[in-house]
Write a structure and sequence with these properties.
This protein is mainly alpha-helical and 94 residues long. The chain has one domain. The protein contains 2 helices and 2 strands, in the order αββα. The chain has a two-stranded antiparallel sheet. Strand 1 and strand 2 form a beta hairpin. The protein starts with 8 loop residues before the first helix and ends in a 30-residue tail after the last helix. 15% of the residues are buried. Bound molecules: zinc ion. Zinc ion (ZN) binds next to loops.
Length: 94
């Protein structure tokens, strides 16, 4: 059986914020791709796609740290600290 990550709200938040940073930056870059078709010799479209994939990987890691230690479902999401599991109400460690 694969090793599951323990619930860790700090790491969950770090990876959630990393996801948002990559996605928001890629969205902003996309707005300017007509004026800025290349960045450092790379196609801007290619860069934004890469950033979205990295963001997605960050989200997957964030979700691994979101598993409730009691019911093993996703305890919740968002950009604020989680106090208790939204699925079973189990109080989560700080
Ligand atoms: Zn739970």
């Amino acid at each position: 059986m694969a090793q599951q990550h323990e619930f860790n709200d700090t790491k969950r938040l770090i990876y959630t914020y990393a996801t948002l940073i990559f996605w928001i930056t890629s969205l902003i870059l996309r707005q300017y791709k007509d004026d800025l078709p290349y960045i450092g010799g790379l196609n801007t479209e290619f860069i934004t796609l890469g950033m979205q994939l990295v963001g997605l990987a960050m989200l997957v890691i964030a979700m691994r740290y979101s598993k409730c230690p009691s019911c093993e479902k996703l305890a919740g999401g968002g950009i604020l600290n989680l106090k208790k599991c939204k699925a079973c109400g189990h109080a989560l460690p700080e």
